Structure formats: C-alpha cells, structure tokens
Amino acid sequence: MNQRHPVRARRALMYMPGDDMHKIQKAISLGVDCVCMDLEDGVAMNRKETARQTIADALRTLDFGRSERLVRINPVGSAFIEDDLRAVLPAHPDGLVVPKVGEAAQLHWLSQKVTEVERKNGWADGEIVLLALIETALGVVNLAEIGRSGPRLQALIFGAEDLAGDIGATRTPQGWEVFYARSAVVIHAAAFGLQAIDIVFMNLHDTDGLRAEARQAAHMAYTGKQVIHPNQVGPVQETFTPSDEAISHARRVVEAAEENQKAGVGAFALDGKMIDAPVVRAAEWVLARARAAGKI
Ligand code: COA
Ligand code: MG
Asked: Any catalytic annotation for residue 276?
C-alpha cells in the first residue's frame, strides 16, 4: 500500500460556481465528500470579485458538516491569482484545487503563499492542502515532478475537457483520445501516494453512462470523480464505495492469507482462485477504501 496521507474519502468532488450561494448550500445538503467552490472557468469574468466574496462568506458562516471545503482558484500565473488568494485564504478553506498545473514550480510558489497565511493566523503548517488539476499537455509530461512537489499535495485530478482543448483533440464517448493521459495521472498518483480523481461526466441526464464511466475509473484505481450536478453525487459516491460483498470477500482473503503465512504458505487457493501477495494487497485496498468511506 503506497498511501502517504491518512485517507480522507474524496469519492465525489462537486463543483459549483463560486458566485452561487444557493448551489453551495445545496451541495452541503447532499452530504457530498468535497464541495469545490469555483473561481475559475465556471465563473464569468465580470463575476470573479462577487464569487470571491461569496466564497469567503460561505466559508465563514456555513456549517459544511462532513463535506470538505475546497476552493478552485484561478491558475497560478494568471491575472486573478493574487486577488483569489487574498480573498479566500483568510477564510480558511480545507484545501485549494489548482487548475492547469503545468510544472512543480507553480505548486511551490502557491505552497509558500499558503504557508505565510497559515503562520500569520497561527494555523498548523500544511493544514491547507492542495489538489492539482492535470489538464494540459505540459501537466501530463511533467507529472513526475508535479507528483513529488511536496507534502501539501494530496491528489491529482484529471481534466479531460481542458486537455482536449489544449491539444486539439475531439472528445468522444469512448474517450480513447484522452486515455493515455487518464492512465498516466492514476499511475503517477499511485507512485507518489496521492489520490486520483477522475474526469467530469458532462451529460447530466445519463445516469447509466455516468455509472459505467465511474466504474471504469474505479477499476483503473481512481479514488473518486469530479461531479457537476446533484444527480451525479449518489451514483458516484456509491460506485467508489466497496460493496458489502467486496468487503466480505476482501476480509476472507486477508484472513486466509494471514493463516497461510503462519503455516509458511505464500500462494494458495480460495474458491478455486489463486491467492498470492498482489491479490492480498488488492484486498487490503478494498478494506482501506471501505474504512475511508466510513463503511467499516
Ligand atoms: N451544485 C449545487 N447545486 C446544483 C448544482 C451544482 N453543481 N447544479 C445544479 N444544482 C441545483 C440547482 O440550483 C437546482 O436547485 P433547486 O432545485 O433548489 O433550484 C437543482 O440542483 C437542479 O438543477 P437543474 O435545474 O437540473 O440544473 P441547472 O440547469 O440549474 O444547472 C448547470 C445546470 C450545468 C449550470 C449546473 O449543474 C452547474 O452549475 N454545474 C456546475 C458548473 C461548474 O461549476 N462548472 C465548472 C467546473 S467543471
Ligand atoms: Mg476547466
């Protein structure tokens, strides 16, 4: 198991425009794992300042319950970033989602800014976490340096629409045009002990399609998915939570492996299937995810 951080479930990460207080309240009422209030592409240019104020108000006045309080800022290096940080950081979000990350230096710069605010307010060092959106060609080719950019980073998020826009690809339902990048993100996340959060499913009314895409992501080892509408929260959080059957099977595998290890046996058969170390590790992952989701 290669997990650098205590696991906090981030099965569904829900965006809403930061200038829309109604949607922020709605998201909280859904019990979604992560509420991500947007300052970037979901907010019109002439509404950025309103959005900053609305988000700061929400952070200061609303009870987010069990939901993580995230803010998606504008890209590091953009004209908006200083104003975003000035408005939002003093209101103490749990973390920042950083769009269009292309190189580690952007995260180093941001982390330094966050450190200054943490120290000034007497908050613990590293308390405000970062989640990096990989959604440009540069971000994909620099995944290794981004993944090891520092302890503040907890997750890599893959953005397929922006990547397609960046490289001139056409999005298709099968998604082969972004499949290399989607794989690269999850592999790098695993290599550096980070969570990996999958693409947005754009069709708001196709729940079967959403479930199928989320299942595929879970099979690839993504730990969650970005969502954009209330209808997507339940199906996505369910898909990224191990089922009762998966949990009881994982327990049997782990228990049987322990007994066999004591007896000096590494590989054995259970229900007609071979079990050895990688199968046991996979079962341990199932149990870790179930624990993170509060199911065991
Ligand atoms: N977060 C919280 N609440 C949301 C929501 C979201 N992302 N999307 C919709 N809702 C709410 C609506 O406000 C509405 O609430 P109400 O019934 O209390 O009035 C309810 O859910 C039903 O919404 P619906 O009418 O089906 O959708 P819509 O047409 O109002 O909105 C979108 C469609 C796409 C504009 C909306 O889903 C949205 O804003 N999504 C997020 C966009 C975003 O943040 N993009 C940037 C990141 S990719
Ligand atoms: Mg985008």
From this structure: yes
Comparing CA positions, the residue from 120, 119, 130, 55 lying closest to residue 95 is 130
Eight-state DSSP code of residue 43: S
* Residue 159 clears pLDDT 60, i.e. is over it: yes
Strand partners, 149: none
Q: How much of the chain is helix, strand and coil, in % rounded to 5?
A: 50, 15, 35
In the structure, ligand 2 is a single-atom ion and the residues with CB under 5 Å from it are 41, 162
pLDDT in tens, 30-40: 999 999 999 99
Does this model's pTM top 0.85?
yes
Atom of ligand 1 nearest to the CA of 27: 2
CA distance 269 to 213: 32
- Distance from C-alpha of 260 to C-alpha of 275, rounded to nearest angstrom: 10
Where does ligand 1 bind, in terms of residues with CB under 6 Å? 14-17, 22-23, 26-27, 38, 41-42, 200, 228-230
One-letter amino acid at 235 equals P
3-state secondary structure of 58: helix
